[in-house]
Structures are given as structure tokens and as C-alpha cells.
Backbone:
């Protein structure tokens, strides 16, 4: 059993060093599909939320719970992606930021359910973390764009690749660079 685990771990390390099983085009296509579905779901949730002229705490919590569900669905699909080595760092940065955003939304949803007003919810550590995670997502956008610029400038191999600009657009959609307004 120990040999099998060691062999599998070694194989995983070798595969990770060589890059994933997807081509860059496949990765960007699948990431775009995940982002499009998540964005559509989020826009629908935001439209429903925005119909309330004076949202209650229950409305806010329901919206946060929808956000969490959408983020979990996206994260599940994202974690199944196996990017090529050239964009593994971008994938790692996105995954870290998106996981933090998801955990922060979960925490805020849980704490908001235990308060009497949104003003009270805004005083919680969970709200502060939610804001910080969103701010960090904006920094990740900048870091990822810098990494994509490095890839584009790294030589002829990436200079004219159509997936490179597509990946930049997908990143902005996934992390929420230029967030959708909810109210």
C-alpha cells in the first residue's frame, strides 16, 4: 500500500512538472464555459435581489447563499481543470483567490444569518474578510495580467496565441475584475 501511494504521488509530481493534460486552448475554452455559466447564474441572482426596493437581512442572506452555491459549482469545475504547464501558475493564482472569495462568502452568509440588520453584519469580522477577499481578488487580477504579459513577451511561442487574450478575459470574469453591481 505504501509503495502504491508513493508511486502515485511520484507520478502526480512528474505530471505536474510536465504540465497538465489539457492544451491551452482547451483550458481557456473550459474556463470560459465555467465563467459564462457562473456569470449568468450570478446575474440572475443579482436581478432577483435587485427587485427588492428595501432588502431585508433575509434577502441579503438568501443572495449570499446563492453566491456561495454559484461559487462552489464554479470551484468544483475549476478544480477539475488540468492546465498545461505554461499557465499552471495562473491557474494556481486563480484557484487561491477564488477559494478565498468562496470561503469569505460562506462566512459572511453564516454570520449575516445571526444578526438583525445589515449594519450589524457590516461590523463583523466575516464582513471585513469578505471585503478583504474581494480586494485581494482585484490584486490577483493585476498579478495574473502581469503573468500573462510575461507569457506573451516570452518569445515567439506565445506572441500570437489566441488563447492568451481569451485567458485574460476569462480571468477578469472569474475573479470579478470590474465586479457586477448588485445595488
Residues:
Amino acid at each position: 500500500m505504501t509503495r502504491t501511494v508513493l508511486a502515485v504521488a511520484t507520478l502526480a509530481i512528474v505530471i505536474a512538472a510536465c504540465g497538465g493534460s489539457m492544451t491551452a486552448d482547451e483550458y481557456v475554452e473550459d474556463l470560459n464555459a465555467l465563467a459564462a455559466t457562473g456569470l449568468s447564474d450570478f446575474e440572475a441572482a443579482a436581478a432577483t435581489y435587485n427587485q427588492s426596493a428595501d432588502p431585508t437581512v433575509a434577502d441579503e442572506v438568501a443572495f449570499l447563499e446563492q453566491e456561495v452555491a454559484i461559487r462552489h459549482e464554479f470551484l468544483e469545475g475549476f478544480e477539475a481543470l488540468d492546465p498545461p504547464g505554461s499557465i499552471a501558475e495562473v491557474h494556481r493564482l486563480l484557484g487561491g483567490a477564488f477559494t478565498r472569495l468562496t470561503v469569505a462568502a460562506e462566512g459572511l452568509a453564516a454570520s449575516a444569518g445571526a444578526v438583525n440588520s445589515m449594519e450589524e453584519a457590516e461590523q463583523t469580522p466575516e464582513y471585513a474578510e469578505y471585503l478583504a477577499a474581494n480586494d485581494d481578488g482585484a490584486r490577483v487580477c493585476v498579478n495574473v495580467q502581469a503573468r500573462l504579459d510575461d507569457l506573451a513577451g516570452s518569445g515567439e511561442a506565445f506572441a500570437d496565441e489566441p488563447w492568451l487574450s481569451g485567458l485574460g478575459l476569462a480571468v477578469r470574469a472569474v475573479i470579478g475584475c470590474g465586479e457586477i453591481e448588485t445595488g
